Structures are given as C-alpha cells and as structure tokens.
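name: query_chain
kind: protein
chains: 1
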Amino acid sequence: AGDAVANVRLPPLPWARQEAKRITTLLRLDAGHVLQGSAASEHALKTAALGTFGVLHLAAHTRADAAFPGRSAVFLAPGGEGEDGWLQPREIAALGLRGQLVVLSACESAGGSLLPGEGPLSLARAFFAGGAGGVVATRWPLRDDDAAFVMERLYRRLALGDNVGAALRRVRRDAMDAGLPAAAWAGIAFLGGGLPS
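structure:
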C-alpha cells in the first residue's frame, strides 16, 4: 500500500528506518534527534532549531517537477494544522539553515528543470537558498535498499573523519566492490562545499 500525502500514493520505505538506526548508532546520536514515521513531519522540521545541528539528513520520497519547479517537494507527514506534508522549495528556503550539510537520501533530489546560466532548479538548490553549506543529493531514482547501503557507508566514513567528497569516493568504491549496479551509486553527488571546517 503506502501512505497518502495530499492525494499522492507513496510506497513505504522500509529501509529508511534501517538507515536511520545505523546512522544513529554510527554517530552516537541522541535518539530524540531522529524523527521517523508520523514524527518526521513538515511541522517538526519547520519548528526545529536546525541551526544547532551539523547535518540534516532526510530519507524520504521526493518529487522533482521540471515543468513547475515550485511544486517539487520532499514528502513528510503533515504534523500540524495548515501543513500538507509537501515541503516545497519556498518552504525549504525559509528553514534558516546555518551552513550545515544536508543529505537527501531521496530520488532525483539533484534534478530539476535547467535554467540557462543558473543550473537545475532542484530541491538541492532550495536547501542552498535555505542556508545549507553543502548538499548530498541524487540525480536519478534510487532503490530504498541501495540508499541505505550507500548512506550507512557515507556516515561511517564521515565518522572516521573523511570530508564529504572523500567519503563519497570511498562509498562508490565500496558499492562497486559489493557488486551494486552503477544506478545504486553513480548518481549521488556532493554539491556546494561551503561547509565549516
């Protein structure tokens, strides 16, 4: 089945919970900082003190609407009066990020319509407008289990002290060594690079 978000049927992401659990363990995070299921809501994200975190990780469904970029969205639970669960670019730009790394473990989060001289109008771009210092995003659809594999290894490398670019290079090698198809790892990109040292 799946969850309905504003008349959109979304299949479940069973590996997203595994992904969150593994990242929480690797980084020794406080479980209260990990929101899942209905707690992972648009309202919770908009009202969180995001400036206190170094990384914002979203494992969710997304939609990159090339025809109408303003209708692109990260799909979350609504979580509050007046919220629809569609975290759209104008809302992302208002999040007040402070140079954090944003990791979008979601399909096509780096894609969108191309604006000559500007690049893609993607969800990643919206996070930059919201103050992100760097964004890890995907250029095409990614299977839920492949995303969990890649993200666990990304955070393992980050926990060991690798910078994001070096960590992603290592993750790609690990994925190739594990026999994963290029579709599982080649479309994951690190954009930006204005992260604090």
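note: The first strand starts at residue 3 and ends at 5.
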